[in-house]
Design a protein that fits this description.
The chain is α+β, with helices and mostly antiparallel strands and about 110 residues long. The protein has one domain. The chain contains two helices and four strands. A four-stranded antiparallel β-sheet has the order 1-2-3-4. A hairpin with a 5-residue loop joins β2 and β3. The model has no long low-confidence stretch (mean pLDDT about 95).
């Protein structure tokens, strides 16, 4: 799957929407696990991972999107997995634009 990450708008789609609605969730992960880079780096990487190697994909007719999901593992400096999040990335069926990308299910 090729998906387009655009700037978008705060209200509807793209990186501005992710920042507005989910940026703090991504920042919390970066801060908690002392990851290098920014919240945007992590969110963009997670969107790429979930659309290129999804563990699940479902069409959502109500908003004409495909919902991609994939696990994202947070590892410590020894390479041990300390937390796994499910990342959801809805993509427009009309133009392949990433609508949003957010983490859930930290376990």
């Amino acid at each position: 799957m090729v998906a387009n990450m655009r700037c978008g708008t705060q209200a509807t789609y793209g990186l501005r929407h992710i920042n507005n609605q989910h940026g703090q969730a991504w920042q919390n992960i970066v801060t908690k696990y002392q990851l290098g880079g920014t919240w945007a780096d992590l969110a963009i990487w997670a969107a790429e991972e979930s659309t290129t190697a999804p563990s699940g994909t479902a069409p959502i007719a109500s908003n004409n999107t495909y919902q991609y999901q994939a696990p994202v593992q947070i590892k410590n400096s020894d390479g041990k997995v300390v937390r796994t999040y499910t990342v959801w990335t809805p993509v427009s069926a009309d133009n392949d634009n990433v609508i949003t990308c957010y983490p859930t299910d930290g376990r």
